[in-house]
Write a structure and sequence with these properties.
The protein is α/β, with parallel strands linked by helices. Helices cover about 40% and strands about 15% of the residues. Strand 2, helix 2 and strand 3 form a beta-alpha-beta unit.
Length: about 270
Amino acid sequence: MSDAVLSARTALVTGASSGIGWETARLLTGHGATVLVHARTTAEAEAAVERLVAAGARRDQLVELAADFTKLSEVAVLAGTVVKHYPSLDLLVNNAAAMAPERCTLTDDGNEVSLQVNFLAAHLLSKLLRAPLSAAGDARIVNVSSSLHRTASMNWSDPHRVKKYSRVAAYAQSQLALTMATADMAPAGSGITAVSLNPGLCDTALLPLYGRVGAPAAEGAAAVVRLCLPETVVANGAYFDGDVIAPAAPAAQEERSLKRLAKLADQLVGRAA
């Protein structure tokens, strides 16, 4: 049964074809939201929507969208589609994530693949969707990060880690960048609030990176959706461990590092912005 607290709101959930993203979409529809269900391909988006309807969502609450985040041009097209059809966007959940592969892999845009999918796509989306997010008046961006961000460091001289690659270090760096950039996604006066969270260790496609048993993805999604609800008071740039506000990595508070990251991210997304 819907409690309808989000019945007048529209949410874009990236990486919503499985795991925490799909469960987040399911829970948001349960609260009455219209959910833009993003997946890598049209077929995956359509399949996700079919499963959501089978799980109890109304078909008229769901819109399928496809974009391969290993191609920044597709991220830009996705944003353009949303801007065209949704002049007001209440929620952006940056959930899409990829495990860093065993060997350093660069996208056609020239970026290490997990850095692009996990961070640069979210950075680009938040910029290109700023107008509809601001138009909503009280929009939120929720970035799904990881506790691994605390183990990471930004490799400023070699952000794609071509010279010395480790899949765990690459993935952790992508999550550190996402966490660091969160506050900057909601500039003062924009009417947007951005937060990030570690949803906990869940049984998703990323679990092998941690090598442990995980909780059901629905538990992680519940923590995500809690931050989407108007009754949950949040401050811009805040970081949560599950339901509890927690300290992010020290780099997330370093003004010089934050400015450096913003400049780097703009350079790496290049013409797609």
